[in-house]
Amino acid sequence: MNLRFVTRKVHAYLDYPVAVSLMALPFVLGLGVSNPLAKWLSVVTGVAAFVLTVLTNHELGIIKVLPFRFHLAVDRMVGVTFVLAPIVLGFTGLDAAYYWANAAALLAVTFLFNSSERATLSSQPASIGVAKTSVMTQG
Question: Which residue segment(s) compose the domain that 36 sits in?
């Protein structure tokens, strides 16, 4: 069984709800008991994730100036940051659990479940590949 089921398209559909949840859940869950940064780190990360999604060259990107590979790298950096934030910033209880759960989800989706870049690119229409090839041979 192949676990790499999160294609670029599936990832794109996950991005907006995740960004909104990062902004809203700290208020719903009452984060920030152990440290006020526990609330605001998530909110700021959610805003940044929303902007990143708008700017990413994938199915739901609006301005499409950032490569999907860059988007994945940022997601992975956020995952690592979420692992370390509770330790470095002294989050405890629900605050720490929230970040570790989000870190686990981010890292699992981007490292374990994400389909390979090659498989993702091959799912594009053939005309895109032809256009890229002709531009590369002309330049």
Answer: 8-138
